[in-house]
Amino acid sequence: MSLWPYTVFLLLFILLTLCNDAFGNNEDNEQILHLKRLQRTQKSINRSCYSQKSKSENGATILEMQHKDYCSSGSISDMNKKLQKQLVADDIRVRSIQASIKNIISGKIVTSSQTLIPVTSGVKLHSLNYIVTVTLGGRNATVIVDTGSDLTWVQCQPCRLCYNQPEPLFNPSASPTYHSVECNSSACQTLQSATGNAGLCGRDVQECNYVVNYGDGSYTRGELGQDHLVLGSASVENFIFGCGRNNKGLFGLASGLMGLGRSDLSLISQTFGNFGGVFSYCLPSAESMSSGSLVLGGDSDTTIFKNSTPISYTRMLANPQLFSFYFLNLTGLTIGGVAIQDSASGKRGMIVDSGTVITRLPPTIYKAVTVEFLKQFSGYPSKPGISILDTCFDLSAYEEVNVPTIKMQFEGGAEMEVDVTGVLYIAKSDASQVCLALASLEYDDEIGIIGNYQQKNTRVIYNIKKSRFGFAKETCSF
Fold first, then answer.
1. Which residue among 83, 144, 381, 411 is least enclosed by CB atoms within 10 Å?
2. Which residues are catalytic (predicted)?
């Protein structure tokens, strides 16, 4: 029997395999994005997200987490406007963070009337998209989750100026466990590091007043209070928070904000005895019908997660000047399996932020990324850029497209693969304008930010006690 046909077949198979690897066309380097499926889901958004569920597993508290846009309804034109406004607001947030960082590093003291944001906290804008429900003083409160903020606050009555929210305003006088925070307390003195503004004392020394101003003119003002906080099945006595009597801005329909930063007033610091300084989340896509989860505690017992790949860990960097932010080192980035060359590889400190939407890269890296992406994602009609996004296409004629896989590598060998829904941003619901969901910083010396759009369907673990981040793929479900 002749071996010639078998030999020819084997040689052809080897040749095809080598070609696939060379041109990045294997399974690991491409993902299928179902455009029509996303469009249909976007049009069907119409539900309430208040009084979300919670549960407890193996000592960890798990809160249902959803994208704020999923909890609203509106026409397609309204959706398109919202998608575009989100980019504008995101740009304001990032510019404010960068300005704040420069002021801190230079040692410049900036008053609240001069600065765009609190000196050491992230700016809270419409782009803070993910919400959870907690119980404060016996009443439910649906709050925006932000790792770039420290002070947790809710709108309170009587309110001099409050934006509309579906839930009843928090009423301190109706809670038997509520107490005001005094002006001479350590908590009041901690406000400076948590918000950038010192605590203010009025005629009543029993009250410590706070002021937080944000980059778009939004603000919250009121007094510090403490009350019984329930997170799922976990109880936190005397939790310190802002009782907002004067609030205005783009906070959507949320009752307030949950600060997951690193200062003494953040929820993570105040619940250190409960959860050991450990939390994680899986952020769902706004276009999907699923819920994500915010897990408080649980890093030592990963059976509570639903990750489909092993968790890889990297070091959490210490930055005494910017201690409220979460830093790590970006050591590499690949597009469709092709490594992006960067002269500063391994020296790029990045902030991980749940409030920023679009990941920001230094200009030199961003340019190299777009050049490689266009090489691999070619043949599609181009479209003009929109806001911060400049690499756009018209994909309205396609039901699905193959997009290059984007992977970020971090110090110690950790890796985060960007979910297929986080590679392209659908700026118009009919897919007539779809853009690469990455943006450039203005200068190379600015600090990059990993935004929530690229963190979707990923288990991101923050372990302050062990000073490490963890990343794993996970299809978000509660």
1. 381
2. 146, 353
